[in-house]
Amino acid sequence: MSKLFAFSGSDDFCPRGSIYPNPKESSLLLSLGDHVDVYFPPCKRSRISAPFVFSGERFEQKKPSIEVLPDECLFEIFRRLPGGQERSSCACVSKRWLTLVSNIHRDEISDNKTTQALNFKDESTDKMSGVVSEVENQDVEGDGYLSRSLEGKKATDVRLAAIAVGTASRGGLGKLFIRGSNSRRGVTTVGLRAISHGCPSLRVLSLWNLSSVGDEGLCEIADGCHQLEKLDLCHCPAITDKSLLAVAKSCPNLNDLTIEDCANIGNEGLQGVARSCPNLKSISIKDCPLVGDQGIASLLSSASYSLAKVKLQALNITDVSLAVIGHYGKAVTDLSLTSLPNVSEKGFWVMGNGHGLQKLKSLTVTSCRGVTDLGLEAVGNGCPNLKQFCLRKCAFLSDNGLVSFAKTVSSLESLQLEECHRITQSGFFGFLLNCSAKLKAISLVNCLGIKDLNLGLPPVFLCESLRSLSIRNCPGFGDASLVALGKLCPQLQQVELSGLHGITDAGFLPLLESCEAGLMKVNLSGCVNLSDKVVCIMADLHGWTLEMLNLDGCKISDASLVAIAENCQLLSDLDVSKCAITNSGIAALARSNLINLQILSMSGCFMVSDKSLPSLGKLGQTLLGLNLQQCKAMSSSAVDLLVEQLWKCDILF
Questions:
Q1: 8 A C-beta contact, residue 509 and residue 534
Q2: Which of 79, 320, 449, 600 is packed most tightly, with the most Cβ within 10 A?
Q3: Averaged pLDDT for residues 376-392
């Protein structure tokens, strides 16, 4: 104080006046009256970049910036913004702001009643200007009807943060699919934390091929997304039972669980799901070496009255699991069992005799050595309402088992046999003779045991319920079998005979003549011994019902196209790839006033040239798809003109 009273200069003391030479500068800090004397002690260096700096006797103003504020202050500002749209706008400024906004949990958003009241007042006065307040949008933001998908390089934490912020004010995120990850900036816990904080309405989460996501990330989802109903984990090696338990405890509404190729998920995680998720409706578990009978048994027994779909593939389970399915699967309607090497004949026998699969409608069994004649018969007895049955790569099933199965299932509508090489022509026709009156479709794929033999079939029996017949890549299937099928199945509407070199006109013509209902879809691709005669008769007899015709690789010419143009008025899909058709045949199609093709495939027709351009242009009035691949006589310039003319049609060349 003594120094102050002993003051004798003018450097530190300003008597009765402004401290600024320019009066306008006084408003930058303080407004002082002319009666005030102010003392300024020496200034300390500021900790942050201030908007003012000293230069001699006056202040110089720097451009002010909100970036000088620390993250804590910005966070407090952002969480006090009146609505989600305002926070979204702030998130667009920089990655720093995006990160801060995305870390705001829904519970941390300030409930500023004054701001809401002001917004409501603005809305009432400016309704014609489209001003929408958060008060009006509160219900909309939490619905969760939006879906987002990130794949490959686009799957990063920054994009997830943007999704979390952007969807919050536009209906809420309901479904999120992440396929793969960016190799350098992939998805981590940070991105999933942003989703957890900003998307409490998330109901469906699918994570595929994410090696960088572990328990911490999935636990973040469990903490913030309590409405989760469907979880799909595929090839996530860092996720273990720990995070699956967290999801089970926090998401009691979980009803759909898919786990594939997750090496660190085992029985403990599945048992936790069984305890906490009583409404589970669908499970699919594939290639998880730590999953055994305990985990599967827990899921089936706890959700006995709700679990409807079960898919088990490449697991180390035994007959015990199948016994549990047979006893507790009271609500199961769809069951798929694939590559279960430790399941024997006993497992299928016990499953069938458990009498718990009364509601089972669809059964698919693939590569299971336990499927034998005895086991299949037991399954048939235990599943009285089975409608669809698919059997693939079951080497121990023979004709006797197939016929016995046909006698036990009274509701079967569809049968598919693939690579069951012990099934012969006798077993195939034995099944048709003993099947239920509800059978509508049968399919044989790559069954090498089928040999073409002349069988003495009962002349009176007819399988009038069968509507669809598919025989693919069975080299032993020939004319004799086809003639017998024509006699047995007069109501066929869909016929697929693909890759059958043994089929000729002599075998196919009786089938055409015996079909009373009228064929609608016919696929003869790869039947290289069928000629124009078959196509002409088919167009004459079934042109009034034919909608799809595939003649890929058949020995047909322009004569077939002429017959099609004159008779097939309902035909919308025609495939004549690798056939000996020319420009004349295409012109015949174009001249027809009956035909209205939508799909035309001429791949590999080397005799079709640029001269067909006008005809294709006329056909293009109704075409939606045109395949001209490997048409070597057509020039690229002609195709370019066609593309310009047929702008509604997808053209392959």
A1: yes
A2: 600
A3: 95
